[in-house]
Amino acid sequence: MCDKLKTLLRNIFLTSATAGWILMLNGCSLRSNLTIWAMYPVLDGTIESLLAETDIEFARTGLEADLKLLEGLIRRRPVDRALLIFAAQGFTGYTMLYLDDEPDRARIFYERARHYGMRALELSVEGISEADAPLKTYNERISRLTKQDIAAAYWTASAWALRIDLERASTAALAESPRATGLMQWVLDREPHFYYSGPLWFFGFYYASLPPLLGGDPDLSRKYFEQAMHSDGDYFMWGKLLYAKSYAVQTLDKKLFVSLLEEVIAGAKDEPEDLRLINRVAALRAAELLKDIDQYF
Fold it and tell me: How far, in Å, CA of 19 to CA of 16, rounded?
């Protein structure tokens, strides 16, 4: 299994059976802690099974229950960095995959993901989660993060930016954008190919989604997208979906729009098992976009 995605989605999915067993053994604090730590490696097999699932709704049912159980574990260990990162990743992934048509709920869940991610980062740099800190102070605190914070920073920034994208009419939300992008820039500078070139897809989407007066730059957007395509575009269909729905639409490139979405629907040749779920969701979204092509061009 691809190590990058296994690491990622080990941190997204906890099976109900595993989490329930942990909760049953929490009578003694030390025993509970040891049990949680010892169970991390056991998750690999169940994660692989869920990632390979081609029934999208079946996967959703399991994920919803697992995320709530994960929050129960965090109540027992509120400063467990691993659990906080699991939650940040899990709620970001769940919202991205399943709440696209429910913006009000999506905002709430993206903020929940951001909250958990910030709690994880706060364990490394005190004060980084202070919302009223001057931007200069916030950026200085970002600079004190270390490599162990890359996952937390990536998912925090992703959830944050996705929530802001749903609140474009809010000047308060837009004012937060430099903080979210600054955090992702920190990740980009250190590990640009984290989560299938996630930081590159992020900035490709970011610069395509904004009008020029607010910092949008189609040329820069395409540069990031093409770098991500070169590294991970053969298998990661979600990235191509982002490329089509942002850059191609913004530049009115209908040919590129159709080409990218048809590639998403066709799927990856020799598709790795651990991309089946996300690629199936991407294919559904691509088909919907093609069906509504007249709304964009």
Answer: 5
What token pair was written down for 295? 């709304």
CB within 8 A of 174, min separation 6: which ones?
A: 164, 167, 168, 214
Closest-CA residue to 165 (of 126, 121, 110): 110
Percent of residues in the chain assigned helix, strand, coil, to nearest 5 = 75, 0, 25
Per residue in 223-262, pLDDT tens? Answer: 999 999 999 999 999 999 999 999 999 999 999 999 999 9
pTM of structure: 0.86
Which residues lie below 8 Å from residue 136, measured CB to CB, with a gap of 6+?
A: none
CB count within 10 Å of CB 146 equals 9
Residue type, 128: I
Handedness of CA 130, 162, 110, 272 (dihedral sign): negative
* Contact indicator for 90, 43 with CB cutoff of 8 Å: no
The two tokens of residue 129 are 């989660």
Q: How far apart are CA 135 and CA 178, in angstroms?
A: 8
CA distance 264 to 283: 5
CA-CA distance, 1 to 212, in Å (whole number)? 41
The residue to which tokens 């990536």 are assigned: 154
Residue-level pLDDT at 145: 98
| pLDDT attached to residue 16 | 43
Complete DSSP assignment for 266-295: H--TT--GGGHHHHHHHHHHHHHHHHTGGG
As a whole number of angstroms, the distance between CA 167 and CA 19 comes to: 34
Given a contact cutoff of 8 angstroms between Cβ atoms, the answer to whether 199 and 192 are in contact is yes
What's the CA gap between 118 and 203, in Å, rounded?
A: 21
The segments of the chain whose pLDDT lies below 50 read 5-25, 42-44
167/159 Cα distance (integer angstroms)? 13
